[in-house]
Write a structure and sequence with these properties.
The protein is an alpha+beta fold and 314 residues long. 34% of the residues lie in helices and 20% in strands. It has nine helices and 13 strands. The strands form four sheets. The protein has a five-stranded mixed sheet, with helices on one face. The chain has a four-stranded antiparallel sheet with strand order 7-6-9-10. Strand 4 and strand 5 form a beta hairpin.
Length: 314
């Protein structure tokens, strides 16, 4: 131990936490002993602070949806610091992952403004703005499939702008019985009930994801275990809201996250009822043309609701 919070990282030779085709930035998550992972965002980082605050003062009903936190470690060879958490994929022989970015935005307005002082910061702001509003489905659905464990034939797939059911069809391709999909729906319903609690108002979940995992090999052998965990807290925080006015933009961010989870839950249910990659909340079947078209009325109602509430926040 270097002190009460920082250990020395002892990485395992085989990385059980982040495979070559896993979602996320390559080589940022390493496996260590006892089924734990070390993520490159160490002591004092925003992600570390999020895990620490949740473990000490967080909403206990969320514990089953957030990996167990075990402090921080440092790679003495390169001086890099890592946040330690339980391996989400532990126990899965061939984990099949799907990283779903939740919310209408991946960075807060204040965070983007702070980065405008440099050319690189301006590009960062422009990239987030364009992704959130034009080149992905985030602004419509409140979530997007950021990535998933891809086989070679899917390496160049741009899932961020694909209709959810198109990606679901690929992700659930190993679930011949449909029982894994049903288990995910049950789990996301449980998660939704937790985030609708008043205590969740403290959680500002900007740019965070939900990771879906099942074992594609065990699915063939009729093992239907799944795992759902909240991940990626680089832009998130847990706040003291005791003195925040009700029109503070923090509450808008909280409700945008809830909206994303609600829409994700409904899209999964749509897909369960009718395994059709062209059907979603924003489509309807036209008998005359015998095809699915965008349901502009439903889509516009949701967008107008978001705009209405957006104007009520500072």
């Amino acid at each position: 131990m270097l002190n009460d919070n920082i250990k020395i990282c002892e990485f395992e030779n085989i990385n059980k936490c982040q495979g070559k085709n896993s979602a996320g930035h390559a080589d940022t998550i390493r496996s260590i002993s006892d089924g734990y992972c070390a993520k490159l965002s160490g002591y004092g980082s925003r992600e570390f602070n999020f895990y620490k605050e949740h473990s000490e003062n967080g909403l206990k009903q969320l514990d089953k949806f957030i990996s167990k936190f075990d402090g921080s470690c440092i790679d003495t060879k390169y001086g890099k610091r890592y946040t330690i958490m339980k391996n989400i994929k532990e126990g899965f022989e061939e984990p099949w992952e799907m990283d779903i970015k939740i919310g209408l935005r991946t960075a807060s307005l204040n965070e983007l403004k702070d980065r405008m002082g440099t050319f690189r910061g301006a590009l960062y702001k422009y990239r987030h703005y364009m992704l959130d509003n034009y080149f992905t489905i985030s602004r419509t659905y409140g979530f997007r499939v950021e990535n998933f464990s891809k086989e070679k034939k899917y390496q160049n797939l741009y899932s961020k702008n694909m209709r959810p059911s198109h990606v679901f069809k690929m992700y659930f391709q190993h679930d011949d019985s449909g029982k894994i999909l049903k288990n995910f729906i049950k789990k996301i319903e449980e998660f939704y009930n937790v985030i609708m609690m008043d205590e969740f108002d403290r959680y500002n979940m900007i740019g965070s994801s939900i990771l879906f995992v099942y074992d594609k090999k065990n699915a063939i052998n009729h093992n239907y275990d799944i795992n759902i965990k909240m991940i990626d807290f680089d832009h998130s925080s847990i706040r003291d809201i005791s003195k925040l006015p009700q029109n503070n933009i923090h509450y808008l961010h909280v409700n945008e996250y809830r909206y994303g989870i609600l829409t994700l839950m409904k899209e999964l249910k749509h897909y369960l009822i009718d395994v059709n990659p062209n059907k979603s909340l924003f489509t309807k079947y036209t008998k005359k043309t015998r095809k699915y078209t965008k349901n502009k009325k439903d889509r516009q109602n949701i967008i107008n609701t978001i705009k209405f509430f957006s104007n009520k926040f500072d």
